Amino acid sequence: MPKRKDLESIMIIGAGPIVIGQACEFDYSGTQACKALKEEGIRVILINSNPATIMTDPNLADATYIEPITLETVEHIIRKEQPDAILPTMGGQTALNITLKLYDEGVLSRFNVELIGASKEAIEKAENRELFRDAMTRIGIESPKSAMASNISEARKAIKEIGLPVIIRPAFTMGGAGGGIINNFHDIDEKCSNGLSASPVSQILIDESLIGWKEFEMEVIRDRADNTMIICSIENVDPMGVHTGDSITVAPALTLTDREYQVMRNLSMEVLREIGVETGGSNVQWAVNPEDGRMVIIEMNPRVSRSSALASKATGFPIAKIATKLAIGYTLDELKNDITKSTPASFEPTIDYVVTKIPRFTFEKFPNTPNELSTSMKSVGEVMAIGTSFCESFQKALSALETGLSGLEEYDFETHSEEAIKNSIKLQTPDRIFKIAEAMRRGIKVSDLAKITGFDKWFLEQIFSIIKVEETIIKRGVPDEPEFLQRIKSMGFTDKRLADLTGTREEEISKKRESLSVVPVFKSVDTCAGEFKSHTPYMYSTYKVNTANQYANEINASSKDKVIILGGGPNRIGQGIEFDYCCCHACFALSASGYETIMINCNPETVSTDFDTSDRLYFEPVTVESVMNIVLSEARNGSLKGVIVQLGGQTPLKIAKSLQSKGIKILGTSPAEIDNSEDRYLFKKLLKNLSLRQPNNTIANNREEALHNADKVGFPLVIRPSYVLGGRAMEVIFNKSQLENYIGKAIHISGQNPVLLDSYLQNAIELDVDAVSDQEEVWVAGIMEHIEEAGVHSGDSACCIPPHSLKPKLIIEIKKQSRKLALSLNVLGLINIQFAVKNNKIYVLEVNPRASRTVPFVSKSIGYPIVALASRVMMGEKLRNINIPNKDPAYFCVKEAVLPFDRFPGTDTLLGPEMKSTGEVMGIASTFEEAFLKSQLAANIKLPKKGSVFISIKDSDKTQSAIEMAKIISELGFGIFATKGTKEFLDKNCVSCNFVSKVGEGTPNIVDEIKNGKVTLVFNTTEGFKAISDSKAIRATALAAKIPYYTTLAGSNAAIKAMKRELHGLSQLEPIQNF
C-alpha cells in the first residue's frame, strides 16, 4: 500500500518531562517520528513541554508548541492548526492518555482529526485491564488470575478470592507507578489506595503473584497487510517481582528453547492481531513458570515503549521511524532497511551478539527510602553494552555504569555467616548481582543461589565462570600468552579490573596487552548478522576473535578530519538528557562544517546513540580504556583533530586528564583550566585578582579541619564535595552538632578532593549565566533568575529568562563579570556561572567551564542553538565571524523542575542544595505570571481555584512580600490557615486567618486538616534542623494527597501570581518558530 495522499499535516504529542518510567527514550522516538514525516513532505505539528529534548528544536517540526500537555491546550492547538491526523504512539503514556481524553470529549470528531498509529479501540483494549484479559481469553492465551477494582471495597473482595500475595497494577500508567506487591492483609488499604490514586481512571488490576517466574518481552511490529515480525526478544535476568525497567535485561532471550521461543513469537503476533495494532510497534510481556513451563501474558503496550528504544539500539532497526511510516500507509515490504539500504524493512532482524542493559539507581539522593526493588520502577537511567557473549557484554555494562565499578567487583557482606549472606541475597536490591558473585567466591553453590534468588541457572553459571577466571588471574597473574589474555578479555575483563585483581596499575596492564597485540576489533550492528553490507557505521568492540586469523575491523572511516564527542553515559539525577542534547548539537554542527563526527556513548535511551546522529557511533563505555581503543583504531585513516569532553557532564571530564596524558588533544577549554575553576584556593585567588566578590568560604581535607574551619565561615553554611554534579551530598548546615553528624558523608563522597565550606547567603536571589567564549570575546547567551532563593539547587529551582525582578544596571554588571571570568579562565567553548545577588551586591558562587544542564532551556528561550556555536568556536572559529543574535527575548520563559518524590516514600520533599529532580518543563508567555502558570501546569502541579491555603513561614520571611501574598490569597476567595507565629504576623498586618496547631501541639493539627480535605495549597518555609524535621509530616501528607506545596517564599509568591493570572485563562498559543 503506498503512502496516503490525504494526510498533509499530522500532530505528534510528546511525553512531557523526564520522569521515572517515562524518560528520554520518548525524545528518541519522537525525534525519529518528526524526521520520518518531514521526509515524506508532511507538515508536522508537535506539542511537548520538555525544552531539553531534541524533538522540540525548531527545525524538527514545522510548528513546535512548548506548552503544557493538557486537554485545553491540545484542543486549542488543534483548533488553530487543523491537523489531518494525530499520532499518539510516540509519547509514552502521556500521549496515549491525552489522546483518549480528546477522543472522549469529542475534540477529534469536532475538528475531523483522524487517529493514526493505533485506533481508539486498540488503545482501550490494551490499556483497560479487563478488556485486555477478555481479549486474551478469546484467542486462548492465559492471563494471571486477576480482577479489576475501582475502590477499596472491590479490591478487598478480589484479593480474598485470588489469595495473597497479589500484584497491583494501576490502569493507564507507566513504570509501574502506584503498583506494588501485597503480601499481607495489613497493607491492602494503603497499597490499593495508592494504585487507585495513580491511575487516571481510578482503576487497578489485581493479579495473582508471579514472583520468581521468568520474564520476557517481545518487540513486535505489524502493518495493514498483516506483515508481522519480531524485532527483538528481551529476557529479564531478574525474576518477576522486579519491574522490567529496574531489571538487568539481555537481548536476544538466552534461556528459551527454540520451541519455547517459536511459541512465544507466534503468540505475540496473535496478540497484535487481536488487539488491532496494524500500523506500528508494540511490546508484549510474558511470564514463564520455571517449574512447569506455564506461560501467561502480563501486558502489552500498543505504542512505542521504553523497551522499543533498547530493541532499536540492540538490533539497529529504527522501530519508531518505521512505525511512523506504517501509520501513514506504507507496508513493511515497501520500506528500505536504513542500515543495509538493500533489504526491505520486512526482513526480521538477526543479531549475532549479546546485548546487556543494566539500570542506574540514585537511592543515595533519597536516604530515607529503602533501596529494595519491586514492581514500581525506581531507576533513573540505564546503560547498554554489546559483546559476543553474555559475560563480555555484562562486564562491559557494569564498567559503563559510572558507579566506580570496573567489572563484577567484590562485595563486603560484613559477616562470615552463610545464613546471613543467604538472607541478604534474598533482598531485591540494586547490588544483588554483586552479592550473588561474592557468595560464589565464598563457596555457596549455584544450585543454592538459584533457589534463593529465582535467577535462571544459566545466568548464574555464566557469573560463576567469571569468578573461576578471576581465581586463575589472582593465582597466576595476567598471562604472557596472547591467546590466553585474549580469552580473558573476551569475557569482559577491563584493564582496571585485571589491575585490581593482580595488585598492579591499569596503565601497566594496558601496556602489556598492547605489547602482546591483544586489542579489540570493532564490529558493526547491521540488523542482519553480517549477511548484507552495512552502510550505517554503528560499532561495538569485542575481544572474541581467532588470534591466528583475526576478523578485520569493520570501521569504514573516510579521509576527512575527525572529531570525537564523548557522551554523558547513563542518565542520573544531576546529569540527564540536557547533556545528551549538547552532544547531539555538536554532532549536527560539526558534520555540517565538514568534519567526520564520532560519538562514543553507552545510553540506549538517547538521540546521541541513534544510528543517524553522528557519522559513526561507538556503543561503548565512556572510559579511558574504551576511548583509547577507539582512538587507536580511528587513527589509521584520516586526521583526528581531537576529543570534545565539555558537553557530556562529569562523565568525560573525569577522564580528560588521562586522555591528555596519553597524547590526545582535548578540544575546547583545557583540563587544567577546568581544574582551576574547581580548585578552591586557585579560584579564590583569581576572584581576588579580578576584584570580584564571593561568599566567605574555606576548604577542609578531613573532619578536624572542617570542624575548625567552620567557625571562620560562620553558620549557617553550605557544605559540598568538590568534583560532583547535581549538588551530590550538598547540605545547608545550621550548627556545629549538625556539621559533626554530616561531615563524614561529605568527606567520603569527595574522596581525595577537599570538601568546600561556603557561607550560606540567606534570602539572596540566585542567577545562572550561560556564555560562549573564544578566548578573545565572550557572548552571554542567557541570564536566568532563580525563582527559589539561593540555597535550592539550580536544577531543582524554577528559573526565568529574562530575569523578572533585576534592574538593568545589575544585569549589565553581571554580563561584565561573566566576560571577565570566562577570559581569565581561558575558556574555549561553553561556560556556566552561578551568581547570587543580596542587597544589590553580586557574589560569584561557582564557575563551570563546560556545558550545563541549562543549555537546552537557554537555547529554546533565545531561539539559537548555543552548543552549535560553541562547537564551532572549539574548532577555531571566532565569534566576531559568526552571525549571532544580539537581542533579549520579548517574552518570558520559565523552567520548572519535576521531582520524583512519589516514587521514594519516606523522603522529605523540602528543596535544598542537593539536586533531586529528574526532569524539567518550560512555560512561555508574554508575562512572567502566565509563563510560571504554564510551567506549573506542564509539571502537573494543579493550582487550586478554591479552598483554603495553609501558611507557615519562618521569621526571616515575615516581610512585606508575605503580607501582599496573603492579601492576594484573601482577594481570590481562599481561606487561610496559619500556625501561631504566622497568625500573629498576619493579624498584626490586617490579614484574616484561622489558627491551626502544628504537628505535636494537639489536634486537629495541620496534618489532620490536610487529610480532612480542608487545605488545598501549602506554603511552608522553614529553617533550622529541628524546624525542618518537625514540618516533614506536613510536606509528606501534602504529597500523598496530591496537594501543591511550596517551601520557599519566592516560590509561594510566584504560585499566587499564577493563580491570579489563571482566572483570565491562557492567552493565544504560538509555535516557537514564530518567536
Q: Keywords, please?
A:
1075 residues, seven-stranded mixed sheet, alpha/beta, globular, seven-stranded antiparallel sheet
Describe the SSE topology.
Elements: E1 9-13, H1 25-39, E2 43-47, E3 63-65, H2 71-81, E4 85-87, H3 92-104, H4 107-110, E5 114-115, H5 120-127, H6 129-138, E6 146-149, H7 152-162, E7 166-170, E8 180-182, H8 188-198, E9 204-208, E10 214-222, E11 228-236, E12 249-251, H9 258-275, E13 280-288, E14 295-301, H10 306-315, H11 319-327, E15 354-360, E16 381-387, H12 390-400, H13 418-426, H14 432-441, H15 446-453, H16 457-476, H17 482-489, H18 495-502, H19 506-515, E17 521-524, E18 538-542, E19 561-566, H20 577-592, E20 596-601, E21 616-619, H21 624-634, E22 639-644, H22 650-661, E23 666-667, H23 671-678, H24 680-689, E24 697-700, H25 703-713, E25 717-721, E26 731-733, H26 736-750, E27 755-759, E28 765-774, E29 778-786, E30 799-801, H27 808-824, E31 828-838, E32 841-848, H28 855-862, H29 866-874, E33 892-898, E34 919-925, H30 928-938, E35 948-952, H31 960-971, E36 975-978, H32 980-988, E37 994-995, H33 1006-1011, E38 1017-1020, H34 1025-1030, H35 1032-1040, E39 1045-1046, H36 1049-1062
Helix pairs in contact: 1-10, 1-11, 5-6, 13-14, 14-16, 15-16, 18-19, 20-29, 25-26, 30-36, 31-36
